[in-house]
Amino acid sequence: MGKGNTTMKTISDYIDYQKDFDEKHFSNFDWAQKISDDNLDVLSFLLISLLGEIGETSNILKKILRGDATLKELRSSLNEEVVDIFIYVLKLIYQLDIDIEYEYFKKMRVNKERFSKYEGGDVNT
What we know:
4 helices, Helix Hairpins
């Protein structure tokens, strides 16, 4: 566990924490509402927001790659943007009512088969 809250140990803990945070904050829509066919604008908003955070992360990388700054110099900004991405992923998980642990392991079984040819071998083969 990192330097943050040591009581959160599972992905479900982070999802619950984010949902609790969202339920306490209000604007022109309900930040914690479940996504359904009746409110797909919420899904659109979340995806646009997520893409915005990915764009901000990419912009930091662009500055590093072109030599304006080093990774060390922009590490804090990069960390913040990656956490913003994580927050929007948490929101998508609970607002779409995804059983993330089940879906993760289901997908990993597919990936295990798909990428089995790369296991323990030469990376150049």
